[in-house]
Amino acid sequence: MPASKSATGSVTLDFPRPVGLKTCMNSQPPGYRLHQSLGYWLSLAARLQERRLDEKLREIGLTRINWCILLGLANEGLTQPSELADFVGIDRTATSRALRQMEAARLIERRFGTDDRRTRLITLTDAGRDAVRLGTPFAQANSEVMTERLGPEDAAQLRQLLQALTEGEEAKLRHL
């Protein structure tokens, strides 16, 4: 990369200018328009949905990750931290941190396995079951907002399309 030195001694990198690129500050590279990008609209829709749910869950002292873990325990019968991490789509470190917080809040209990003392089993407490009961209407209402805007058929089609987009990619999504 060529560089030049100014009279004050500062160094400036001279980037090559792409051929045919307009010098106007408002122009975008040919062929890419942000607001026409599928990724932009997917990201925006996801953030809006997450924000709506986060605001409601905060009212009952939960985060979205806590909520997802509670659902894994209550609805899926998961009991192992690794199962919960895979179910939620987060790494083991984030799962351990969330489980510690949830244990401190008395939403869950962690016990040693009966066959293998190295194994930890996670179970819901009464407070955890109450949190699921209280949070369920929030999650259902949030889902209904999207379904009402699209209509049931389009919502079902969108769900199928999103599943097709993410199929086989679950291991890459450890960032919830």
Question: In words, what does this structure look like?
Answer:
It is a single chain. The chain contains 6 helices and 4 strands, in the order ββααααββαα. The protein has 176 residues and is mainly α. The protein has a single domain, classed as Arc Repressor Mutant, subunit A (Orthogonal Bundle), CATH 1.10.10. The strands form 2 sheets. The chain has a two-stranded antiparallel ribbon. Strands 3-4 form a two-stranded antiparallel ribbon. Strand 1 and strand 2 form a beta hairpin. It starts with a strand and ends in a 10-residue tail after the last helix. The model has no long low-confidence stretch (mean pLDDT 85). One of its GO terms (molecular function) is DNA-binding transcription factor activity. Keywords: DNA-binding, Transcription, Transcription regulation.
List the main descriptive attributes of the protein structure presented here.
176 residues; mainly alpha; Arc Repressor Mutant, subunit A; two-stranded antiparallel ribbon; 6 helices; 4 strands; 9% strand; globular; transcription regulation; transcription; DNA binding; Transcriptional regulator SlyA; HTH_MarR-typ
